[in-house]
Design brief:
Layout (H helix, E strand, L loop, with lengths): L29 E9 L9 E8 L2 E12 L3 H7 L5 E7 L5 E10 L2 E9 L3 E13 L6 E4 L4 E9 L2 E23 L7 E20 L2 E17 L5 E14 L2 E13 L16 E3 L6 E5 L7 E6 L4 E5 L3 E3 L6 E9 L2 E9 L1
Parallel strand pairs: 2-10
Antiparallel strand pairs: 1-3, 1-14, 3-4, 4-5, 5-6, 6-7, 7-9, 8-10, 9-10, 10-11, 11-12, 12-13, 13-14, 15-16, 16-19, 17-18, 17-20, 20-21
């Protein structure tokens, strides 16, 4: 079964600092995150007002790319009812691993309707996991009174399993303070942040000869650190504790995931706003479209992850069917400057 469900530090004089509300759960149309590995255990126990997180022992081991798309009509009708947007997290390996988080945004009230990771795991959350209504400010806590429930399909080290699940989810804005990250290759970060914490427990049950049989649980704790200046999600972590016995196949493990926002790859030159140019679909199989919102496009260069230009165009619609599957960067040139956007070729 999926080992990671669905993808800080003081070096300045302390004055005390004001907390900014977390305006949106998802606050960017596209973003890259460095997957990090610590050399020593990471202590996130600091909480409350004026907390200090000093995480300076990371090295980068991979990259995740987040994109946000509208759900397919079949997803809304059949698999994940109520979904209004999908967070697509693509891990840059060969072949890329794509995870989807299905979200319902009802005038700022955010709930999770499901998640998937290829054919390894599918969770259909029929009783949605509600996080709260954004913006959220410290202190905040919400325990979904109805809990969460639904159906699942997955595998444990090759053993297939499907059934139902029930559980609980608690969301809190439990801290704000100063976060420091070391330079792991993309520049260091020190800033004022507000933290969103989500804790959920899922109990899994399968049917054996018509009788319900519990096979274990997954306990997940997620910490999201939002920058107080621009509202972006600069650092996110998850701890996933698995205790599963499916058909005699035991899986007991704790999986820790650390990710930091890459602020260099998708930087904007000459003050071009990211939403001035929309690129879709992403991931793409054949035709890549660019909506320039009345701004001129002089040229588009497409480069691979090694920086080699593999395609150049002056059109808003590009046929990328000849590209190999993988991660690419489109660099868009207009009269106002440049902007770079990542995309996945399926």
């Amino acid at each position: 079964m999926k080992k990671q469900l669905l993808l800080s530090f003081l070096m300045v004089t302390y004055f005390g600092f004001a907390q900014a509300p977390i305006t949106e759960f998802i606050n960017t149309s596209e973003q890259s995150y460095a997957i990090l590995e610590p050399s020593t255990p990471v202590d996130q126990s600091a909480s409350g007002a004026n907390a200090v997180w000093n995480f300076t022992n990371f090295s980068q081991i991979g990259t995740n790319t987040d994109t946000y798309v509208s759900p397919a009509p079949t997803d809304v009708q059949n698999e994940y009812p109520g979904t209004t947007e999908v967070q697509v997290i693509t891990t840059d390996i060969d072949p890329p691993v794509v995870s989807n988080l299905y979200i319902n945004n009802d005038n700022g009230e955010i709930s999770i309707t499901g998640l998937s990771q290829g054919d390894q795991l599918v969770l259909n959350i029929t009783n949605n996991a509600t996080l709260g209504t954004f913006p959220l400010s410290y202190p905040y806590m919400f325990l979904d009174p109805d809990g969460i429930s639904g159906t699942f399909e997955g595998s444990v080290d090759g053993t297939e399993a499907n059934g139902t699940f029930t559980g609980t989810i608690t969301t809190s804005v439990d801290a704000y303070g100063i976060l420091t990250l070391n330079d792991f290759g993309l520049g260091a970060y020190t800033g004022s942040v507000t933290r969103l914490k989500t804790e959920q427990t899922i109990n899994l049950t399968i049917s054996v000869i018509g009788f319900p049989v519990p096979i274990g649980s997954v306990v997940q704790t997620v910490h999201n650190y939002y920058d107080d200046v621009d509202g972006s999600l600069v650092f996110r972590t998850s701890e996933n504790v698995f205790d599963i016995n499916a058909g005699g196949q035991m899986f007991q493990d704790t999986v820790l995931v650390y990710e930091a926002q890459d602020r260099s790859t998708l930087s904007v030159d000459n003050a071009i706003a990211s939403n001035d140019f929309i690129m879709y679909p992403n991931p793409v199989e054949t035709t890549l479209n660019f909506d320039s919102k009345n701004k001129s496009i002089n040229a588009i260069d497409i480069t691979d992850i090694n920086g080699r230009i593999v395609m150049t165009s002056i059109d808003n619609i590009i046929n990328v069917s000849s590209l190999q599957a993988g991660l690419y960067i489109a660099r868009i040139q207009s009269n106002d400057g440049f902007i770079s956007k990542k995309f996945i070729k399926k």
